[in-house]
Amino acid sequence: MMIILREAGAADAPAIAAIYAALIADTTITFRSAPTSTEDRAAWIAERQASGFPVMVSERDGDVLGYASYGPFRGLDGYRLTVEHTIALSPAARGQGLGRELMQALIARARSDGLHVMVGALSSDNAASRRMHAALGFTLAGTLPQTGQKFGRWLNLELWQLLLDGRERP
Ligand SMILES: CC(C)(COP(=O)(O)OP(=O)(O)OC[C@H]1O[C@@H](n2cnc3c(N)ncnc32)[C@H](O)[C@@H]1OP(=O)(O)O)[C@@H](O)C(=O)NCCC(=O)NCCS
């Protein structure tokens, strides 16, 4: 059973929406509480791709196991060589190294796009994501305490960053 990593299309929107919807409804991995939909995710994929950003999926036997993407960080032109990424796998696909594989493909794309920094904004509740980011060479740049709220409690946001060429540029 081969895993294929490929660019997403509109047909992947239902699978991506299902993965994201469960994270929204049940977890503090995302600070979002407003529900998503297939249409919402189809528009997100189209918007990312129209702006030249990747949306990648991991697929096995025709099933989408997860997705990863990056997009603008804070939106101002001074940040144009920095991107913020997102990644999520379906529950059954987690803990098998697939997240790391998808991230490695995303990082390779960021390098070939000439980008300088990737930023991951993680809930401090997210032990698996923290481990994966550390294993990929990301470092914790800072924690913003109590910047979010969900399920009636405060959430802390951790900013993890990867210098894509391994060093600060002059
Ligand atoms: C976070 C996520 C992408 C990681 O992908 P994954 O394929 O499950 O992780 P991997 O199998 O590549 O493992 C990466 C590391 O995390 C560890 N890990 C995996 N699941 C874990 C868990 N539930 N708790 C603690 N550590 C965990 C692994 O042991 C591994 O650590 P190691 O390198 O020290 O051995 C995936 O679990 C996921 O989609 N989670 C839900 C969505 C999410 O959290 N997205 C990230 C938002 S910032």
Overview of the structural elements:
- The protein is an alpha+beta fold.
- The chain has a single domain, classed as Gcn5-related N-acetyltransferase (GNAT) (Aminopeptidase).
- The protein has helices spanning 13-26, 38-50, 98-112, 127-135; strands at 3-7, 55-60, 63-72, 82-89, 117-123, 139-150, 153-163.
- A 7-stranded mixed sheet has the order 1-2-3-4-5-7-6, with helices on both faces.
- Helix 1 (13-26) packs across helix 2 (38-50).
- It is globular.
- The chain starts with a strand and ends in a 7-residue tail after the last strand.
- Bound molecules: coenzyme A.
- Coenzyme A is lined by residues 23, 29, 66, 87-89, 94-100, 120, 122, 126-129, 131-132, 135.
- It comes from Paracoccus suum.
- GO terms for molecular function: acyltransferase activity, transferring groups other than amino-acyl groups.
- Pfam families: Acetyltransf_1.
- This is N-acetyltransferase.
- Residues 3-160 form the N-acetyltransferase domain.
